[in-house]
Design brief:
The structure holds 2 protein chains of 2 kinds. Chain A is mostly beta strands. In chain A, 0% of the residues lie in helices and 54% in strands. In chain A, strands 2, 4, 5, 9, 10 and 11 form a 6-stranded mixed β-sheet that branches. In chain A, strands 1-3-8-7-6 form a 5-stranded antiparallel β-sheet, with no helix packed on it. The chains are: A mainly beta, B mainly beta.
Chain lengths: 111, 112
């Protein structure tokens, strides 16, 4: 089983739609989780940190379910500029900050 | 610009040559991480360094790859005798010890 698994997509949605991505992780000892956004051929950019059950920032909501070992990202009122690859990232809690990245879920928002 | 800086942004090397990739962390950060991203794949952890120390190099290939973060100057990822399979984007990230890591723009290495 992969340490972090994501549906690669792509998710094709119209502007204004609500879209959700899920991610599962294998290490039950993981303590911190992140969503990064990566545009084509550019560096990952931190979108949200998730430490407790969830986090909300504007149109973006992340939720954590420790019992089922999954994290979700919900994007409301999608914008064209939201088109990107969304990376689920887990801190493996190995004694230092070792991040393991999922392969990403691609989102395409169309007019 | 107080962000993570990497250079060069693009590097072309022939098989057998050496590649040196540089990373200057964000101001105030002393923790540096190197990742490799192969085409159509996710980022893979390579090495974690603090000033003058390698903390974890579990993701680094045993041969030809080395990394350092000297007391003065940038962190350097060195790849000796490059092969075609080394062609990838190499990203550096930095942190102040907190879990959040911030990435540089990457170096795209092409081995011909």
């Amino acid at each position: 089983r992969k340490e972090v698994e994501q549906d690669p997509g792509p998710f094709n949605v119209p502007e204004g739609a609500t879209v959700a991505f899920n991610c599962t992780y294998s290490n039950s000892a993981s303590q911190s989780f992140f969503w990064y956004r990566q545009d084509c051929r550019k560096e990952p950019k931190l979108l949200m940190s998730v430490y407790s059950s969830g986090n909300e920032d504007g149109r973006f909501t992340a939720q954590l379910n420790r019992a089922s070992q999954y994290i979700s990202l919900l994007i409301r009122d999608s914008k064209l500029s939201d088109s990107a690859t969304y990376l689920c990232v887990v801190n493996m809690n190995t004694g230092f900050q070792k991040l393991v990245f999922g392969t990403g879920t691609r989102l395409l928002v169309s007019p | 610009n107080a962000g993570v800086m990497q250079n060069p942004r693009h590097l072309v090397r022939r098989r057998g040559q050496e590649a040196r990739l540089r990373c200057s962390p964000m101001k105030g950060h002393s923790h540096v991480y190197w990742y490799r991203q192969l085409p159509e794949e996710g980022l893979k952890f390579m090495v974690y360094l603090q000033k003058e120390n390698i903390i974890d190099e579990s993701g680094m290939p045993k041969e030809r790859f080395s990394a350092e973060f000297p007391k003065e100057g940038p962190s350097i990822l060195r790849i000796q005798q490059v092969v075609r399979g080394d062609s990838a984007a190499y990203f550096c990230a930095s942190s102040n010890g907190a879990p959040e890591q911030y990435f540089g723009p990457g170096t795209r290495l092409t081995v011909t």
